[in-house]
């Protein structure tokens, strides 16, 4: 449709852009990535008028050429697609927000400025004269509240009106000395550049923006003339070009602020009052631990688990009572329905034992997941998580990460899929990659049954409360050790990345965006249940139910085992899964678990960790047994020669590459096949080495030595060496690589 | 040279010059830390780093390492 109007939403991070986007489009946005960089773009049509396409640009502070978000935004703005830009401005933080506004106006595109959170400004007693600001900027300015919806209709009609207009030369002017130089540079800009865009390019050339020179195709002679002009101006001003332009912009803004804003007498804001306590030097850490404990107490120990248990035991277990009426469970309903329609035993087995059992196991986690994400999303949306990053940065920096890595790790305790997705708030590419690689070491909700099973097998009770924290501890240690080791490799070498972060004002999130945030995460998990896990349960069902009849008296034919004549009760021993498990069992022999069952469990664990316990129950012929079932503990422990093997099995399964769904998410987030391979390879390799060390050192302690003992010692020595050796020489001298475009 | 790193908590200073280069320097400038800007050091994180600043009416957190690049009067 050629008549479509394209509206771009631009603004600082946290200015309410996404709230506005959700409000005007009805949140059915399409989320995608810009090719080549892990920067998200959202696109959707206006709910009131489908001919208007709204693109939500990433939150940025400037149109400088340094971060991928900024590059993507300016390429999009200059690429000719948008008809009008709506610049969302946080009116409570006007001065800094106008800095981007000036740059957006300079693009020469029609612009409408939306003064968001105008209601909060009014409340504080400040007054912003929108008309005067509009005259100074040369573009329409409208006060809105994206949260409450006021002014939004006016904003849309203004945007439509502006979109119909022709591009104009930006109105604001800098100091006359700078303007003289900019005029001269503008004359050197190739004649093919339209009048409205000439000033933008002149400013970019003045700033010595390398990519501007390139995209303009400036001749060498012209480039030399520009350089001479800039150098002369720098000498006159005794400052560098970038500083001169930034200084001019802020000076202009200071004038506008004086003219257009009337400030009420300063009071201490609620936000400041909260922060006095929350990030207090002494109280900061205890408050942080208390908040985290409360979140896990609610999500894991009480509320969430109670709900999850109810779903598992009743909905997918033995049925339940609703208002005094006995209700059958889902598997019972499905079974009786299948019997009623006369389905064969094979189909019933596939649907009930395969699909319903598998998908049900996953869906059971949803209540827990919802509680966890409701709490975490609230902490994030209200502004507390930024304070957590502030408080924890010191700790994370020690092993090569930043305070911002903490949020993905917290989310990963629920599910790795949204955890990996949460890394997108980390601007620095190396930090982001490192966080993606290590965040799934943290035990997720689906690993908890494995932990319970291990507990039962190791100490004979699932109530040993000291063991579960041990596995979280293992996860945290794995993150720390990996961080320190990887930081010293070529992959991650380089200066520690700077930590520069705005601490947004606290505010109560709108219920709508809070709910959307929770839904975004939970739906990622549900999607996984119905796609990957659905498919994988069917495959595992097939592999464990089909095989060749090679038992004594068997026909040697291939087929559906349970329906065969004279089939032994333990038919899975003859299944395809047994053959496959047996074929790769040698990989795990040094780790102390070489039975095909343990191998098959680990392999199905790579598909989805939820499968591990279910597979164990299936393979050990204890169908319906759960991780809390002592008979399963004994049978499970029986697969291993020693306790070391059990522990190694646990370590491997908790640390190795996460489920298919998380792997897929890692692929999306890394946006590179090579980095995905590096991440998954490292995770599996690390898990194998840890498992090897656990088993071999356990064996050595009991007096059993082999060539693998030597291998384990060698690995341990290597890890210790990598941990304690100083940062390799030369690792700090790759500063230019930081500014290089994303691969 | 006196840098922002050495400024006592609670005091307000004026930026004299921004050292360093490349992306970080530009980022700090874009956030409004330029010559002549008034900056208040509000607090230090519980573990001693990073610091919280008030600049141009909003709260900004940077590490001491980065603050060392900001020369103040």
Report on the structure:
The complex is a heterodimer of chains A (743) and B (73). With 743 residues, chain A is an alpha/beta fold. Chain A folds into four domains: 1-267, 3-Layer(aba) Sandwich (Rossmann fold); 284-303 and 367-446 and 457-494 and 508-513, no CATH class; 306-360, no CATH class; 519-724, no CATH class. In chain A, 60% of the residues lie in helices and 8% in strands. Chain A has a seven-stranded mixed β-sheet with strand order 2-3-4-1-5-6-8, with helices on both faces. A two-stranded antiparallel sheet of chain A has the order 7-9. Chain A has a two-stranded antiparallel sheet with strand order 10-11. In chain A, helix 21 (429-439) packs across helix 31. By secondary structure, chain B is α+β, with helices and mostly antiparallel strands. The longest helix of chain B is centred in the middle third of the chain and has 9 residues, at 22-30. Classes of the chains: A alpha/beta (743), B alpha+beta (73). Chain A binds chain B through residues 61-62, 64, 66-67, 93-96, 99, 239, 242-243, 246-247, 250, 275, 279-282, 284-285, 386, 390-391, 393-395, 397, 496, 498-505, 735, 738-739, and chain B through 18, 21-32, 34-37, 43-50, 52, 56-63, 65-66. Strand 12 of chain A pairs antiparallel with strand 4 (58-62) of chain B.
What is the domain total for the residues of chain A?
Answer: 4
Beta-strand level of the residues of chain A, as a percent range? Answer: 5-15%
> Biggest sheet of chain A, strands in spatial order?
2-3-4-1-5-6-8
Distance between the termini of chain B: 9 Å
Query: How many helices of chain B does DSSP assign?
Result: 2
CATH top level assignment of chain B: Mainly Beta
Distance between the termini of chain A: 33 Å
- Number of distinct helices of chain A: 33
Give the radius of gyration of chain B.
11 Å
Named CATH topology of the largest domain in chain A: Rossmann fold
Give the C-level CATH assignment of the largest domain in chain A.
Alpha Beta
List the uncertain runs of chain B: none
Strand count of chain A = 14
């Amino acid at each position: 449709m050629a008549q479509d109007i394209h509206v771009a939403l631009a603004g600082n991070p946290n200015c309410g852009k996404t709230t506005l986007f959700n409000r005007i489009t009805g949140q059915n946005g399409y989320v995608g990535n810009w090719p080549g960089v892990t920067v998200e773009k959202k696109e959707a049509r206006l709910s009131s008028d489908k001919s208007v396409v709204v693109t939500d640009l990433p939150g940025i502070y400037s149109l400088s050429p340094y971060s991928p978000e900024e590059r993507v935004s300016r390429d999009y703005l200059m690429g000719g697609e948008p008809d009008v830009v709506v610049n969302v401005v946080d009116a409570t933080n006007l001065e800094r927000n106008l800095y981007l506004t000036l740059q957006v106006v300079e693009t020469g595109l029609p612009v409408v400025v939306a003064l968001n959170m105008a209601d909060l400004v009014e409340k504080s007693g400040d007054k912003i004269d929108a008309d005067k600001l509009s005259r100074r900027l040369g573009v329409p300015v409208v006060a809105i509240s994206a949260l409450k919806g006021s002014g939004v209709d006016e904003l849309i009609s203004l945007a439509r009106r502006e979109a119909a207009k022709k591009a104009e030369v930006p109105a604001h002017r800098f100091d006359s000395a700078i303007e003289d130089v900019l005029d001269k540079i503008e004359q050197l800009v190739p004649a093919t550049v339209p009048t409205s865009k000439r000033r933008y390019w002149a400013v970019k050339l003045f700033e010595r923006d390398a990519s501007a020179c390139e995209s303009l195709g400036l001749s060498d002679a012209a480039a030399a003339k520009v350089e001479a002009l800039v150098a002369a101006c720098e000498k006159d001003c005794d400052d560098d070009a970038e500083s001169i332009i930034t200084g001019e912009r802020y000076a202009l803004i200071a004038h506008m602020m004086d003219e257009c804003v009337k400030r009420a007498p300063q009071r201490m804001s609620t936000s400041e009052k909260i922060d006095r306590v929350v990030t207090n030097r002494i109280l900061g850490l205890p408050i942080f631990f208390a908040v985290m404990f409360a979140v896990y107490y609610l999500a894991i120990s009480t509320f969430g688990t109670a709900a999850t248990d109810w779903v598992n035991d009743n909905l997918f277990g033995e049925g339940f009572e609703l208002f005094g009426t006995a209700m059958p469970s889902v598997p019972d309903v499905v079974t009786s329905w299948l019997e009623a329609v006369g389905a064969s035993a094979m189909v019933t087995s596939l649907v009930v034992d395969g699909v319903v059992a598998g998908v049900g196991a996953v869906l059971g986690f949803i209540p827990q997941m919802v509680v966890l994400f409701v709490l975490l999303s609230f902490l994030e949306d209200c502004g507390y998580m930024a304070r957590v990053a502030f408080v924890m940065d010191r700790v994370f920096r020690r092993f090569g990460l930043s305070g911002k890595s903490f949020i993905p790790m917290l989310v990963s305790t629920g599910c790795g899929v949204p955890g990996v997705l949460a890394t997108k708030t980390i601007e620095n590419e190396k930090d982001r990659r490192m966080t993606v690689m290590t965040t799934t070491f943290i035990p997720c909700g689906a690993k908890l049954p494995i932990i319970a099973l291990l507990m039962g097998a190791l100490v004979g009770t699932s109530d040993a409360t000291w063991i579960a924290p041990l596995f979280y501890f293992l996860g945290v240690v794995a993150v720390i050790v990996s961080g320190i080791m990887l930081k010293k490799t070529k992959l991650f070498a380089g200066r520690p990345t700077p930590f520069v972060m705005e601490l947004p004002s606290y505010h109560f999130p709108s219920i709508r965006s809070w709910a959307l945030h929770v839904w975004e995460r939970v739906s990622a998990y549900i999607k996984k249940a119905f796609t990957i896990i659905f498919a994988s349960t069917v495959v595992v069902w097939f592999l464990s139910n089909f095989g060749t009849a090679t038992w004594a008296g068997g026909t040697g034919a291939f087929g559906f085992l349970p329906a065969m004549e004279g089939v032994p009760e333990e038919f899975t021993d003859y299944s395809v899964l047994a053959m496959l498990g047996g074929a790769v069992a040698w990989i795990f022999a040094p780790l102390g678990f070489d039975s095909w069952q343990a191998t098959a469990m680990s392999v199905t664990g790579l598909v989805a960790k939820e499968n591990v316990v279910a597979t164990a129950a299936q393979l050990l012929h204890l169908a319906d047994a759960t991780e809390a079932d002592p008979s399963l503990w004994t049978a499970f422990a029986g697969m291993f020669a020693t306790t070391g093997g059990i522990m190694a099995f646990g370590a491997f399964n908790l640390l190795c590459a996460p489920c298919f769904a998380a792997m897929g998410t890692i692929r999306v987030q890394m946006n590179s096949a090579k980095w995905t391979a590096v991440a998954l390879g490292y995770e599996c390799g690390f898990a194998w080495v840890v498992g090897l060390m656990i088993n071999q050192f356990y064996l050595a302690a009991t007096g059993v030595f082999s060539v693998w003992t030597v291998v384990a010692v060698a690995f341990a020595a290597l890890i210790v060496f990598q941990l304690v050796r100083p940062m390799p020489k030369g690792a700090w001298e790759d500063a230019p690589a930081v500014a290089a475009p994303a691969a | 040279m006196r840098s922002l790193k050495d400024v006592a908590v609670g005091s307000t200073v004026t930026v004299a010059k921004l050292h360093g280069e490349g992306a970080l320097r530009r980022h700090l400038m874009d956030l409004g830390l330029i010559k002549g800007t008034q900056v208040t050091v509000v607090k230090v994180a519980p573990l001693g780093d990073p610091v919280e600043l008030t600049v141009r009416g909003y709260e900004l957190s940077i590490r001491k390492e980065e603050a060392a690049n900001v020369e103040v009067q």
